[in-house]
Amino acid sequence: MKKLIAGAVVASAMIALSGCHTNQAKPEETKAAAAVQMNNDDLYEVSHEGRHYVFDDFATYQSFLQVGETSYRKVYIGGGPKGETLVFGLTGKDKKKLSGIAGIDMYNGKLEAAEEFYGEMRGEDGRLYVFSTLEDMEDVRTVGEAPYRFTQIAAGPQGQTVVFVLNKSNKKKQPVELMAKFKAMNNMK
């Protein structure tokens, strides 16, 4: 009887070990999962009622635009670009995290943006700035204006003036790809 039990234990251990070996993730699957977790491909900022809001999730950003509030947030009094209250709008999965939140890390320069970055910044002046690089977004946040831009009056979802922010490398080209991405993101034709 002891030999039978010992044999069963050894057999189940062999099955468990072989199962673990075949179920390991491939390196490219691990990289893809890490990229999804980083969420560094977009960032949205809104100046609203004396506060500066930052979102790394498009759905949370859109919800804020509709109701003017966000369910989950991290707040830093005086942390905004002009000393205003800085509010990071969080998703439900990020609300209990103490670190590793993409929007906070990107805003603070601790996480680089993805190569295919997209950003929007809405000012209280009715302008909607659209970005293809995080560096351009940081510059506009710091300076308050975009030195290189392509502007379309009343082209935004609520009739805002849309400013497609350019830089020295693309200042002489119409930002066709960025314009198309803006329209797709905002469900416009």
SSE layout and pairing:
Blueprint: H1 2-22, H2 27-38, E1 42-48, E2 51-55, H3 58-67, E3 72-76, E4 85-90, H4 102-107, E5 118-122, E6 127-131, H5 134-143, E7 149-152, E8 161-165, H6 176-185
Parallel strand pairs: 1-5, 2-4, 6-8
Antiparallel strand pairs: 1-2, 3-4, 5-6, 7-8
Characterization of this structure:
The protein has 2 domains: 38-116, no CATH class; 123-189, no CATH class. It is α/β, with parallel strands linked by helices and 189 residues long. The chain has helices at residues 2-22, 27-38, 58-67, 102-107, 134-143, 176-185, and strands spanning 42-48, 51-55, 72-76, 85-90, 118-122, 127-131, 149-152, 161-165. Residues 4-23 and 29-36 have low confidence and may be disordered. It has an 8-stranded mixed β-sheet, with helices on both faces.
Quick summary of this structure?
This protein is α/β, with parallel strands linked by helices and about 190 residues long.
